[in-house]
Specification:
Layout lengths: L8 H11 L20 H16 L5 E5 L13 E7 L9 H6 L3 E6 L5 E5 L5 E7 L3 H15 L1 H15 L6 H7 L1 H11 L9
């Protein structure tokens, strides 16, 4: 989904209903932000191995992204995986193989980079599937790598995440979209659009 006003619940009701397989699932409680867990990279590695075993050469690129991929950054205990296949719109080429190992297709967004999202079978994991060469994956990796090397922006992002997690949201996507302004601010520094990066 493209970012929208995070307080417009009616818009989320409509748009999530359009892209979520089985219907949108409201949050059961507050967004839980946990201190960094050094076990998160190992959980990612397990998902990567499982995906590579299921898809073989169909994996064009696979990366650990999101907050659990940044050492020292507090996060929701959710492993985000960015997976590039030849054509993410061609679900027959990869979804069936992933479902056979326990993944569940939950999101289909043809209007946003042909993004598909599958939930992990036994780890709280989101596998974000895009076509090879997708600029959104490059953006995710730039953000990850910038936060890994920049303590000031890592602290800024952590503070904003904790602040927003303290609010009441109907959907997790609202929380994610509410971070857009701080993400854009950090990305401007990461891409060199601002002359004085934080250190």
């Amino acid at each position: 989904m493209t970012p929208r006003d995070p307080d417009d619940v009616a818009a989320y009701d409509r748009e999530l209903a359009e892209v979520t397989i089985g219907g949108p699932r409201p949050l059961a409680g507050p967004v839980g932000i946990h201190d960094y867990d050094p076990d998160w990279p190992r959980l990612y590695e397990r998902e990567e191995e499982r995906i590579r075993a299921a898809l073989g050469h169909r994996v064009i690129r696979i990366e650990h992204v999101g907050s659990t991929s940044v050492p020292g950054l507090p996060a929701k205990p959710l492993i985000d995986v960015a997976l590039e296949v030849l054509d993410s719109a061609d679900e027959a080429a990869y979804v069936t193989a992933l479902e056979a190992t326990g993944y569940i297709l939950r999101i289909r967004e043809p209007d946003w980079f042909e993004h598909r999202l599958l939930k992990g079978p036994d780890t709280n994991a989101n596998v974000h599937v895009f076509s090879a060469g997708c600029e959104e994956v490059d953006r995710m990796l730039l953000f990850r790598d910038w936060l890994r090397g920049n303590a000031g922006d890592r602290e800024l992002y952590a503070a904003k995440k904790r602040e927003l997690a303290g609010r009441e949201w109907k959907y997790m996507q609202q929380y994610a979209d509410a971070k857009t302004a701080v993400v854009d601010e950090i990305m401007a520094r990461a891409t060199g659009e601002e002359p004085n990066p934080r250190r």
